[in-house]
Specification:
Elements: H1 5-14, H2 25-41, E1 45-49, E2 56-61, E3 69-75, E4 95-97, E5 100-102, H3 110-126, E6 133-139, H4 149-155, E7 164-171, E8 179-184, E9 186-195, E10 201-202, H5 203-206, H6 213-223, H7 245-254, H8 258-265, H9 278-284, E11 289-295, E12 305-306, E13 309-318, H10 324-337, E14 344-353, E15 356-357, H11 372-389, E16 394-397, H12 404-412, E17 416-422, E18 434-436, H13 437-456
Helix pairs in contact: 1-3, 3-13, 4-12, 11-13
Bound molecules: ligand BES and zinc ion.
């Protein structure tokens, strides 16, 4: 029996596979088991590889003789459901309303994983002798930076060889305009804590004599950006790859109206960076962001203290050619240099991931060694986008990160075809996440036809 995308997605959403929260470990295992069973049901040789954290599902369909090999990537973990009170339906019970299906992970990335499984299953049912090798790598740690994946790639390097990687874990701007993501941002995450007095102090008795850790934290953070919006860390921009004219051209073709975009986001204005439009800034420039800040009294009303400590979580999104370790060192050193006397500082490092970039065929800077099977797959994607969605695909760098994509390039030498099935309305990572049923249906046809075309060498 062929796998049905909607039913598969409903089951996937029913498992609360939140990778960051250890209480959900059993749900990650259930999701893994369901994927193993699903892949085995369509006759893939399937194995779940144990890791220190969450297992990686690897599955393979091998054909006799010479045939192209497509390696498919997806992740079965999701972001936390928090804040639960803002959900209109239960996050872990998929609910169809109108032309969308709601639930945590309905889009990111369970929706597309279900779409690809259904497409492959239907295709192989219709063409059991399709001359195409297929491999799946489905991980459960993407949303926490894939800490266990790299060693698995190293260990199974020979088994995971192929012509290119196919994934649908990125977005398109509109349902009639498929975006192929040609670049992803890298990331480095860390936090620091400033410690002042050995306990909270009465702000009347000691205020004026003791440096307040929150003031010190705000001063340091304030110093990390310039007036023009750029990051004020020496060396931060040294390795940033310049933007090519064709890339700006693709972005213009998207035709996004900035006023509408502003309304959609609900912001009173954009944070503008010199020389970059807001749409360019998210794709071509690195950032330094604050993801959380705390210290002192957080309850109702006031409490007159000088808190003993204050902390902040920082992440930098990075672009091609920036080395996350180097950038993390630079930013940490700068913060240390700017830390005033009167507080001590402690850093906690979190995960790092490298940016990724592939230049599709027929662009001014396409590498001569671009895999020919992938080059054809890009062209096929263009043709299928026109036929099924209305316009040829646009090739753009995107602001989000899938850190393992660059490791896959480095370790397996596979470039990626990243077809965007998410839409801005999906609200991934937010309450009431949803996935468009139209993207689901058309996406399935697109993947089926794409794989048929790759097998035929079109
Ligand atoms: N699917 C997203 C990444 C994405 C979304 C890329 C849309 C491009 C367009 C992925 O699941 C994600 O959220 N990644 C994290 C990675 C991080 C935790 C290392 C991200 O970008 O924050
Ligand atoms: Zn995500």
């Amino acid at each position: 029996m062929a796998l049905n995308a909607l039913e598969t997605l409903k089951t996937l959403v029913s498992f609360p596979s939140v990778s960051t929260d250890s209480k959900y470990k059993p749900a990650l295992l259930q999701t893994k088991d369901f994927l193993v069973t699903s892949l085995q049901s369509i006759r893939f040789e399937t194995e779940a590889i144990e890791t220190e954290l969450h297992p990686i599902v690897i599955a393979e369909r091998k054909v006799k003789g010479d045939a192209p090999t497509v390696v498919i990537y997806g992740h079965y973990d999701v972001q936390p459901e928090d804040p639960i009170e803002l959900w209109d339906t239960s996050p872990f019970e998929a609910t169809v309303k109108g032309d969308r299906i709601y639930g945590r992970g309905a889009a990111d990335n369970k929706g597309p994983v279900a779409v690809i499984l259904a497409a492959v299953s239907k295709l192989l049912e219709e063409q059991p002798d399709l001359p195409l090798n297929l491999k799946f790598m489905l991980e459960g740690e993407e949303e926490i930076g894939s800490p266990s994946f790299k060693p698995v790639l190293e260990k199974y390097k020979d088994r995971l060889k192929g012509d290119f990687l196919l994934a649908c874990d990125t977005g398109s701007q509109k349902s009639d305009q498929i975006v192929v993501t040609a670049g992803l941002r890298g990331i480095t995450c860390f936090e620091f804590k400033l410690k002042g007095p050995n306990k909270d102090l009465h702000s009347g008795i000691y205020g004026g004599a003791v440096l307040n850790p929150i003031k010190a934290l705000v001063d340091i953070c304030h110093s990390l950006h310039n007036e023009d919006g750029s990051v004020n860390v020496p060396g931060f921009y040294d390795d940033v790859l310049p933007v090519e004219e064709w890339e700006r051209g693709e972005l213009k073709k998207l035709g996004i109206d900035l006023d509408e975009y502003q309304k959609f986001l609900g912001v009173p204005g954009f944070f503008e960076q010199k020389g970059l439009t807001p749409l360019e800034a998210t794709r071509y420039a690195p950032t330094l962001e604050y993801n959380g800040v705390w210290g002192g009294y957080q309850g109702e009303g006031s409490k007159t203290i000088i808190p003993s400590e204050a902390s902040v979580k920082i992440s930098c999104r990075l672009v091609a050619k920036q080395d996350p370790d180097k950038i993390q060192d630079l930013v940490i050193q700068t913060i240390k240099d700017r830390c005033p006397e009167g507080v001590s500082i402690e850093f906690t490092k979190d995960h790092n991931g490298t940016a990724y970039l592939v230049v599709p065929p027929e662009k001014p800077n396409t590498p001569a060694d671009l895999n020919p099977v992938l080059a054809d797959a890009f062209k096929l994607t263009d043709a299928l986008s026109s036929e099924l969605f209305g316009k040829p695909a646009l090739y753009m760098r995107e602001g989000g990160s899938i850190p393992i994509i660059n490791d896959i390039k480095e370790i397996l030498d596979l470039d990626s075809l990243l077809i965007g099935l998410y839409l801005p309305e999906d609200g991934y990572h937010a309450p009431n996440e949803s996935f468009s049923l139209e993207m689901m249906e058309k996406g399935q046809v697109m993947i089926e036809r794409l794989l048929t075309g790759v097998a035929a060498g079109d």
